[in-house]
Amino acid sequence: MAKKNSIISNIFSLGALQGLNYLLPLIILPYLVRVLGVEKFGEIAFAQSFIQYFITLTNYGFQVTASRDISTVRDSPEDVSCVFWSVILVKVALLAISVMIIISLVELLPLFMGKETVIFASALAVVGHVMMPTWFYQGLERMKYILIVNVVARGAMVPLIFLFVVNENDYVLAAALIAFGFTLAGAIGFFVAFRIYPLKVVFPPFDMLIRRVLSGRHVFVASIGHVLYSSTSVAFLLGMLTTSTVVGYFSAAERLVRAVQGMVLPVSQSLYPHIVSLAKNNRVEALRFISISLRWSTLVFFILSLLLYFSAELLVEIVLGAEFKKSVSVVQWMAFIPFVTALGNVLGVQTMLVFGLDKYFSRAYVAAAAINLGALFFLVESFQQNGAAITVFITETFLTFLFIILLKDKGFHFQLFPPSIR
User: Mutual orientation of helices 264-281 and 337-347 as an angle, nearest 10°?
Assistant: First the structure.
């Protein structure tokens, strides 16, 4: 019963945290799009999508691999401390690499001419993600602390945005305030970790750092594949191929869809350590638990996607305003992405990663990234923001079907009632 309550508590905390991740942007979104206009809002979206590549680089898939390791050794402060500091040191090294790459690209490529300040302002978010040990709290199943930290730190930025961002010339300040919310949350989250667990300051040997990098390589490749085909990356590529105005239409709609899609993550992250623990002791019980997750994901997210499709016009009118009418069709094209993503999460994260199929998991994401890039260049030229939306839907659907094929090839037989393995 205690374990069940812990899972429910973590789902609630992660759900609230993920809700916060999308609620705060949705609170300021109607204000920003009206004050900044489509073009300047598109400039911020372009900068944020570029910086997302470096957030992915510094995360290095630790939200899965480090969380899994913390969950396994969480009763040993010595072992947890070794995992903690090895991850932090690798992330700091990746941050240094990221800073050098960002500065070099921004200074050398004509693509970024005139966008330097908004990109550097948005880059503050990378520092925040490096400092925030979400993987640590997830492995310990103590996600309520992350929720509190984010509410305090990122919530503090909302009134500052309303107070100081008053016209389109303040778009760089808006980007900086949004990014600084992540930095402040990361700093607080880092120090709170030492208050809730007896972490010790240790200096892991170099070979342990190398092992840490090697052990996470497959999930990292999958993360790179994911960011290459994600709607965030599509916004960046859209900015390269079209204009900031087109990016604005797409990104504003994408934020509405992401608010629903974001509900997938808290459930997945909360269940993942529990399924890892089950699979370690009882493979059959783990598969039974996954079957329950698959059924509920199918039902809940299909209904949510259906509601999103039929309410697209009303949502755009209320949240974005009349200037964003072209975003309605974008929302409709992407409406069923939350449903497809939920299924893919059960099959990929909750099954493939739990049962040691990391290599195939990463290959699936690489294949999806290739499909995404090909479709994007083909569709955007003719359909602009709608082409980008169609591309994301095609890619997510392709990835989910690829997970099904790979799992069947490995002996998993998935039906809604229930999955099994020979």
Answer: 20
Q: Cα-flanking dihedrals φ and ψ of residue 354, to 5°?
A: -65, -40
CA distance 400 to 407: 11
Both tokens of 168, joined, read 């389109």
Would you report the helix, strand and coil content of the chain in percent, each value rounded to 5?
85, 0, 15
3-class secondary structure, 142: coil
For residue 133, cis peptide bond before it (omega within 30 degrees of 0): no
Mutual angle of helices 283-310 and 327-334, in 10-degree steps:
150
Q: What is the spatial distance between Cα 122 and Cα 369, in angstroms, rounded to a whole number? A: 24
| Residue 314 pLDDT grade (very low, low, confident, very high; cuts 50, 70, 90) | very high
Q: What is the mean pLDDT of the chain?
A: 85
Q: Identify the three-state secondary structure at position 354.
A: coil
Read off the pTM. 0.75
Q: pLDDT tens digits, residue range 244-275?
A: 899 999 988 988 898 787 766 666 666 776 78
Q: Is the pLDDT of residue 15 over 60?
A: no
Structure tokens at 157: 């930025």
Q: Determine contact, residues 409/277, Cβ cutoff 8 Å.
A: no
